[in-house]
Amino acid sequence: MAKTRKFRIWRGDEQAGDFQDYDVEVETGMVVLDAIHLIQAEQAHDLAVRWNCKAGKCGSCSMEINGKPRLSCMTRMNEYAPDETITVQPMRTFRVIKDLVCDVSWNYEQNKKIAPFKPGPRDADGNYRMKQDDVDRVQEFRKCIECFLCQDVCHVLRDHEQKEKFVGPRFMIRLAGLEMHPLDTADRIPKIKEEFGVGMCNITRCCTEVCPEHIGITDNGIIPLKERVVDRYYDPLRILWRKLTGKT
Amino acid sequence: MADIDELQQFEHDVLVIGAGGAGLRAATECSNRGLNTGLICKSLLGKAHTVMAEGGMAAALGNVDSRDNWKIHFRDTMRGGKFLNQWRMAELHARMAPDCVRELEEWGAVFDRTPDGLISQRNFGGHRYPRLAHVGDRTGLEMIRTLQDHGIHQGIKVYMENKALGLLLDGDKIAGVLGLWRETGRFALFKAKAVIMATGGGGRAWRVTSNSWEYSGDGLAMAYHAGAELMDLEFTQFHPTGMVWPPSVRGTLVTEGVRGDGGILLNSKHERFMFNYIPERFASETADTEEEANLWLNGDKEARRPPELLTRDVVARAILAETEAGRGSPHGGAFLDIASQKPPDVIRRKLPSMYHQFKELAELDITREPMEVGPTMHYFMGGIRVDHDSQQTRVPGLFACGECAAGLHGANRLGGNSLSDLLVFGKLAGIGACEYAASLPSAPAPDAGQVQGLMRSATDILNRETGENPYSIHSDLQDLMQAKVGIIRNQAYLEEGLDGIDQLRTRTAGVKAHGTSQYNAGWHEALDLDPLLITSEAVARAALLRKESRGAHTRAEHEGENEEWGNRNIVTSKAADGSMQVQVVERPAPSEELRAIATATLEELEGTAS
Known about the structure:
The complex is a heterodimer of chains A (248) and B (610).
Chain A: E1 3-12, E2 17-26, H1 32-42, E3 62-65, E4 68-71, E5 86-89, E6 96-98, E7 101-102, H2 105-113, H3 132-141, H4 149-153, H5 155-158, H6 169-179, H7 189-193, H8 206-210, H9 217-233, H10 236-245
Parallel strand pairs in A: 1-5
Antiparallel strand pairs in A: 1-2, 3-4, 3-5, 6-7
Helix pairs in contact in A: 3-6, 6-9
Chain B: E1 8-17, H1 21-32, E2 37-40, E3 57-58, H2 70-80, H3 87-106, E4 121-122, E5 132-133, H4 139-151, E6 157-159, E7 162-170, E8 173-181, E9 187-197, H5 218-225, E10 230-231, E11 236-243, H6 257-260, E12 264-266, H7 280-283, H8 290-297, H9 312-324, E13 334-337, H10 344-350, H11 352-362, E14 371-380, E15 383-384, E16 398-400, H12 417-439, H13 448-463, H14 470-484, E17 488-489, H15 491-508, H16 521-527, H17 529-545, E18 554-555, E19 568-574, E20 580-586, H18 592-599, H19 602-605
Parallel strand pairs in B: 1-2, 1-9, 2-6, 9-16, 17-18
Antiparallel strand pairs in B: 3-5, 4-5, 7-8, 8-9, 10-15, 10-19, 11-14, 12-13, 13-14, 19-20
Helix pairs in contact in B: 1-4, 1-12, 2-3, 3-12, 5-17, 10-11, 14-15, 14-17, 15-17
């Protein structure tokens, strides 16, 4: 049964913009992205929105729906009361390009700063061997679909605009996935401390809450990285060792 | 109209179009070989269609069943493709896939493991042994992220959200690409000695599809306009298991891994109907009782495989036949049941994204209830015709790899052969393009008139005063292709389809996009109409010509395979007068060695790897 639902969608660009009202005929099972597509096809052909897979696998259609960072393809209309107006706006942490599309290129720049995976030698028979137990945690981090909702909600990036000092939760778990990879031999701890700013995270766990892949970003990724930095730089025995020997 | 010298310009030795698995692999190869390499993609990096691949990538590593080897993979691929595959491509694929998978691991992919720590492999339709290296049911994500994270350190220049409008020529040679920045609507002129197409298929021409908006046949149409040939386009794969409910997710993919891990198909009478649809060719290697199928599921290596793991063309037609006979599920599909076959924790571990997808989008718990599934337009076996070793088209400097290239899969693709296809032929296309670019004495110069023409037809859509809504034209095309060029085809339907495509082309000539050039979704939709129509017409014309039923192409009035047609491919090209020309070409004979492998028994091939 089609029902008319009210939408308020932010329209505009970097210079100016405002919310515009739309009425949409919504059918059973629809998600917010379906409604946006209907508005696009019938009322606002030039409405800008990113999407690809429409199944929560690609992380393109991130936006803020009634104030919450969500994937619009996985947000069902029946989550909202039948008479509730649904307000949709672009992610606030990034510069808006147009309507619901914002400039997420900063994230791609952060990724480039991270030293790539550097495996040790293969076994004599040409294979690498790793136990499933030893890769479970890394695989959890690798579920990340780069929707950047964690970056959007991170206070350090969103409210304090410290993009120079902190790469954000997405790249913390990318780093954690490399650091915990059983085959990796690179050392990223000095950069995790300084350049990537692990100390900036004050563990409010907002990133974990919005992750559509349910990755334990804070507890499983960022906190262990903080511990590794502490072990390396603030362990009293290590400090003494460094003083005595001059070696790190 | 701006002078082309005033356009934003970029120069590369090789330009790759498309940033899925094939494009990224090709670009990495070129860059590693020291060439100045550019990569343009319609979406953001990491969002291409590869990300949606679920089940795994096929490679005869032999980690789970040591009887496997490249010859059996090759044999399975040929049989699955109903012997219409290009022999040499199927050979290269089967031989090279294991090393390509190991290479991906070296670049950071973290596959699921066997108990002794090797890359684990799962069962899939048409593959004799567990052969698919996988990561749960998100293997495509693992692949694209690995290639992306590796690729950004290889010196490739990536141009995101840039749509290629057309290939530029210097005489008959490739000279570059005209691109359009989606953000600003400005044009960009890419000069290149060689161009590699890695643009995927054209599934968005159908209503029920697993494909995203990007799949509008861009690469096929651009290559066609530039003088390349298209081949095997009548073979469009309808994946048997797409979601059917609710309506807004109809077509969304349900991985074959559900069946690979033990899922069974049932009709409304709770009959396991696939036992009634076992084709002669596969009868000797398929279980014919539930008891035997259960033995196989429990790991009995002597038991034959369950009929749910027959090739996709067979399973898709069976589901369609059951629904048409009135034995369908409530929303017009079949039941796919894993809940009765595996414990909930195993289902959640092996099929996490399916669990998630049904829970969130259909409010259904797949560990407790069966899913409702039906065929969905999924993949193009056909595409741009290429040389089997270099992946070059007949246009000098134009290469193609991945889904947009034809040849490996013949009349039907086996699940899992796509991801390995991307790696193997991405790499080979990269090598081919490098060798070609190095052989050119000087860089070709794009034709200014051609650039002007492409810019004019793009901006006309914005500039005309009035015109038709691009979304309506696209939507009408989807209904037309679904109704007339679907799973079961006949002459009358195909002719009606072609008439309809003609009418849509006339309407497209007057399409209008409202608004400015800045990130204008309606304009982008309008620009996709030409490639969609070219692709649709090529599929319909080839389907009309092939008077037999083979693999994914089924003609109601021409039942079964016809031996003569088994030696022919259908090739489509643009005639001098601009019309679409379709011709039949005889297939080259295979080497004796390959023919012997393809027709050998399994026992003859087991343990013969070399």
